[in-house]
Predict the structure.
Amino acid sequence: MTTMGTRVTPYAPADAESKKEQVARMFDNIAHSYDFLNHLFSFGIDVLWRKRAIRILKKTFAAHHGSLKIMDMATGTGDFAIEAVRMGLKNAHITGVDISTGMLEVGRGKVAKRGWSERITLLEGDSANLPFDQDTFDAYTVAFGVRNFENLDLGMQEMLRVLQPNGIGIVLEFSKPQAFPMKQIFGLYFRFIMPTIGRMVSKDAAAYSYLPESVAAFPEGSAFIERMKNVGYTDCQRIILTGGIATIYTGRKPRQT
């Protein structure tokens, strides 16, 4: 793992590949163990966080009677998309997008196993250059993905571009607890215990050292809200989860005038 200013990359040297290329390689390397480690490290709480974000979607579109088009950016193995369908998000087709072919391969297997291939489509794509027309989606979700973007502002702007006017973007991301004792427990767990277990199980020494460094470098809280506003989002809000371990951010695309 290499840190250059606020640019954190999984592998060294940082200038040999772009961050996007390194992140794609990292997730390809750990795709076989990602779901297991993800749920293990969060003690299953990540499932509850996703459910909370999906309930926001369901509430937002409760009065919507037509079909919905939703993008799940940085979909990984498709957990968010699968959970959205499982929770009964009405008349929704979800397009998952990710840069890791290894993660998408695992995700497609999970979708096919559940018989949901007509409800969920998983595509390879980059947050900075999405293969969709402007105003395509009613909503987008991103779970634990924006801190991996090569260019955070460009990625947020590009996701805004493909939203329909008044469409909602929902970002679920790790954050850093500020209060005792959660701050101290989280710091110890994230910096020492998680990388050690992750290294043994995933066989990628860098991946789970990159995780705490990328969280530390992410402009969370009010700083991220300002970044959202600066690229064009309105009605930006945040919900702090589990003592500050994670945060849900929401923002809207301005209505057309």
About this structure: The first strand starts at residue 2 and ends at 4. The chain has nine helices and nine strands.
